[in-house]
Model the fold of this input.
Amino acid sequence: MKICRFDDDRLGVVKGDEVLDVTPALEVIPPQRWPIARGDPLIANLDRVVERVRALEGAAPRRKLADVKLRSPVPNPTKIVNAPINYQAHIDEAKADPKLGGGRKLNHITDWGLFLKSTSALVGPADGIRLRMLDRRNDHEVELAVVIGRECRKATAANALEFVAGYSIGLDMTIRGPEMPSWRKSVDSYAVCGPWLVTRDEVPDPNVLNLLLWVNGELRQSSNTARMVYNVQKLIEYATGMYTLYPGDLIFSGTPEGVGPVAPGDVITAEIERVGRFDIRVAGYEG
Done:
């Protein structure tokens, strides 16, 4: 099932070129009082929501997909986990271009560990990207986004996928420079997630997916998740060895080679096999 959040926090199911408005399914999410539980309530109750969605689909109002504004399908992660240098070809290009690596050691993902992006950076395709520090390079990085479905600590590679709710496309925007990645990558709008969440059952193996990115129609990135240094299971194991993941937490699993700069006025198109495709517009920061 392809589950989307659209317009003013409506819940939808994507069927071909249409969105079925199944917002009433959100009524099955139990109300919470302060202090609320950690994690995204929709993802924490996804099985119940999906069951209700199936009952509503037949009579649900329909909209053309092209006419709705797609937001991040997960609005409330407690953290956005990022995997740096997780494709060997990207490691190689970063070694060849000092602007990418910032002078840091670039041999293996364990040289850097994982890093977190601020949740305030999270947007969906309809929200657009608003660039800061235009005197520096602002680069695109397409990634498979893994959506955690339930509380998870000290997972193993053998059981890691049991904790996954589904997948989305992640676009990890970054400002190049000497500062720590969490600073340069946590700018408002620099964590794009969309166009929807594809439930785990629709992606039998997340480690064999083609991923591509174009800028203004020019192909910039083209690879396959089979080329990741740490696959999805290993990333979950690695992350949960240090901290607990909660429902709705996102793992941006790393980008392949071909990263490059964008500027205001550009249109980025991102696509991942079995997941989806979206366009997002790039603008300068205002206000």
Observations:
- The longest strand covers residues 164-172.
- The mean pLDDT is 95.
